[in-house]
Amino acid sequence: MTVALPPAPQFGDPVEVKAVPEVLAFLATRRSASAVTLAAPGPSAAELDALLRLAARVPDHGKLAPWRFVILEGEAKASFAGRLEALAQSRGDQTAAAKLAKLKIPPVAVAVISAPRVATIPEWEQRLSAGAVCTTLLYAALAMGYGANWITDWYAYDPEANAVLGLDGEEKVAGFLLLGTPREPPFERERPEIAPLVSRWRDAG
């Protein structure tokens, strides 16, 4: 599944803007894979490095990089899930414990952490940039041939779970990106009708 990426442009290099029909075709049928269908193999270390490089090419007002990545795989991921399961069970919350299956099953997870910087750029824009990172990482993994799913669930918002992950200050989990090889193809889901969601502003003054 290894895909060779072109060299990253150097700062100040002109970057060509051109039509890429293959990207449009990909977006027209893009579908996340169910997390519980994701099995080994997941992306290799080199592939994961490439995916993170792509994910970091998102719009980022002020060039702040107000996000970071936490990679969860192998024994470390199992240990992290075990800590969360113990946390849920200590509260007698079996539903929360059961929801960890989505995290446990896929071979690789990447937590995208929204980490806003002190700057003149509004925090809201910095948070949106972290969401763009999640989207781009999801799309890049699918384009590389892997199955991918973007989730949050309770452990993305729980303060004690966040502490286990190593968050501090104003950091928040923008998403867990679950990566692997799907054991079965995902089925298309219902999509919104676009027309009711679109308006065109007109000056009524």
Write a concise synopsis of the structure shown:
This protein is an alpha+beta fold. Helix content is 36%, strand content 16%. Strands 1, 2, 3, 4 and 5 form a five-stranded antiparallel beta sheet that branches.
Tell me the β content: 15-25%
Give the C-alpha Rg.
Answer: 19 Å
Order of helices and strands: HEHEHHHEHEHE
Helicity range: 25-40%
* CATH architecture verdict: 3-Layer(aba) Sandwich
CATH class: Alpha Beta
Task: Outline the structure in words.
- It contains 7 helices and 5 strands; from the N terminus they run αβαβαααβαβαβ.
- With 205 residues, the protein is an alpha+beta fold.
- It has one domain (32-183): NADH Oxidase.
- Strands 1, 2, 3, 4 and 5 form a 5-stranded antiparallel sheet that branches.
- The protein starts with 20 loop residues before the first helix and ends in a 23-residue tail after the last strand.
- 24% of the residues are buried.
Topology:
Elements: H1 21-29, E1 38-39, H2 45-55, E2 67-73, H3 74-90, H4 94-98, H5 101-104, E3 108-114, H6 123-143, E4 147-151, H7 159-165, E5 172-182
Antiparallel strand pairs: 1-5, 2-3, 3-5, 4-5
Helix pairs in contact: 2-6, 3-7
